[in-house]
Each structure stands twice: as structure tokens, then as C-alpha cells.
Amino acid sequence: MPVPPSAFDLVYDELRARWPETTEEHDVATPYGRTRVHTYGPKDGSPLLLLPGGAATGLVWFANAAVFGERYRVHAVDLMGDAGRTERRGAPWKSAADQTAWLDALLDGLGLARTHVCAHSYGAWAAVRYALHAPQRVDRLALLDPTQLFAGFRPGYLLRALPMLVRPSEAHGRAFLAWETAGTHPDETWQRLYALATTVPGRQLITGGRPRTADLSMPVLVLLAEHSRAHHAAKVADRARRTLPQAQVTLLPQATHHSLPLTDPKQLNDRVMAFLD
């Protein structure tokens, strides 16, 4: 008998329906398993790879895809080792080297010799590591409230996340989001997806030290959430400007870390598109 869909799968499908009607689904083979990619936009458009934060899934870009996809061929990824429709199987998944090898294989499978990359939170950390590993494959790099690049997490943020990490439950995930996104009102369906994603067994996000952002050679945009509780945005902005004097560094008013990229998306979409164009 077929296995009934989980609560996570049901909400995942509900959020998938919010994407533009012509969005395509691809399962790209890599040595670490098949990677789910949501693709939208003109087939002859310049490619744009979207990497989400942890537990967000590639569907978190539903409020951005239609705008990005006006001129770019958007590829939004369910991260390897995280919740979503990406399957973790095959080669061992243990180190940052595995992560960059996975992204190499993913771009190969998508037929992308080069691409723009826009990434949020943990996805931004992975994107920077990849841009340093293969700068010839990254045209422009947009980092949305990146973590573990210019500063560590605030202790209070980690303390608030602790119940969700130690005893994962939908209630703990929702409570954490409610605290971090206070006043921004993120999409209700996505909030439930995030909370359920934190309970999915077998999640294994690769972590490591801070990459040498000063060595980035391509144009970089750093968009920081003014009210992020993950870190002190003004201090991160100052450090980003000193580390990457050639980068564009901007604070997004009223935004919090987990309200990106979907809440009040117009300002984010406008800034990212202006940078890519």
C-alpha cells in the first residue's frame, strides 16, 4: 500500500502551488543523492541559483520567483542534507568539501557553466564557500542576511533556538519563528513548513569555520535585515564593508532574519534585480 503523505509533505505541496504555473521540477543526480530543483523563467535567460536557509526549503522563494524569473532562469534548490524533496543517499556527506563537490555536480547536472547566485542565511555560507572554490562558475553573488561569514550568532539567538534543536517539534519551531520575526508576519503556510521541517529525521547540515570572504573576486551584494536577531546587523554591515570594500552593503528596513526572503519582498526583489542587472 502507498505510504500516506506526512504533514510536512502536505504543506510542502501547498506551498509549491504558490509558485508560478509554469514552474518545472527537476531531480538532478549527484554523487550524494538526487537534488530537487524548482525552475522558472525564460529558457534563454541568464541562470540564477537560489540557495535557502536551513529548514526553509527551496520553496521559500515563492514571493521572489515571479520577479526574478522575468529575466533570469531561476533554479531554487532544496539543500542536500536538509528537509525537502532532495534525497540524501550515496557518497558520504561529512565535510565542506562534500558540499562544494555536491554543488559542482548540481551545476553540471543543470548544464550551467556559470551562474549568478542569490543565497540566504546558511545558504549564503555555502554559496561563499562555493564561490571561493569555483570562482569561474559564479558571475555575481547576492548574500541575504548571511550567517557565519562576517560575525557569529548572537548568544540570545542560539539560546532561543535550543528547544527547537534539542526537542524538535512543530510547536518549538513556531515559537522560535514568532520570536525572531515579531512584527513582520511571514506567510502562514511557510511558517508551518519551516516548523515541520525542523522535525524531519535525518537532517544533516554541514557546518565549518568562516570562509575567507576577503578573497571573493566577483561582484558581491550583502543585504542585511535591520532587525535580525541572528546577529547585530549594523556591526555586520560595518565588518562586511571593511572586509569587502568593493561590495554593495545595505540594510533592509524592518526585516528580520527569518522574515527574508518572503516578507515584504518588493524591496528585496528590487535591490537584487538592480544588482544582477
Short key terms for the protein model shown above:
alpha/beta; 277 residues; 36% helix; 8-stranded mixed beta sheet; 8 strands
Strand order of the main beta sheet, please?
1-2-4-3-5-6-7-8
Q: What is the general shape?
A: globular
Major sheet: size, sense and barrel closure?
A: 8 strands, mixed
Question: What is the end-to-end distance?
Answer: 51 Å
Question: Which range does the strand content fall in?
Answer: 15-25%
- The helix fraction, in percent, is 25-40%
Rg over CA atoms, rounded to whole Å, is: 17 Å
Mean pLDDT metric:
96
Q: How many strands appear in the DSSP assignment?
A: 8
SS field, number of helical segments: 9
Q: Give the SSE string.
A: HEEEHEHEHEHHHEHEH
Give the structural class: alpha/beta
Can you walk me through this structure?
With 277 residues, the chain is α/β, with parallel strands linked by helices. Helix content is 36%, strand content 18%. It contains nine helices and eight strands. α4 (122-133) links the parallel β5 (115-120) and β6. α1 (7-16) runs antiparallel to α7, α2 (62-68) runs parallel beside α9 (265-276) and α3 crosses α4 (122-133). The longest helix is centred in the middle third of the chain and has 15 residues, at 96-110. The model has no long low-confidence stretch (mean pLDDT 96).
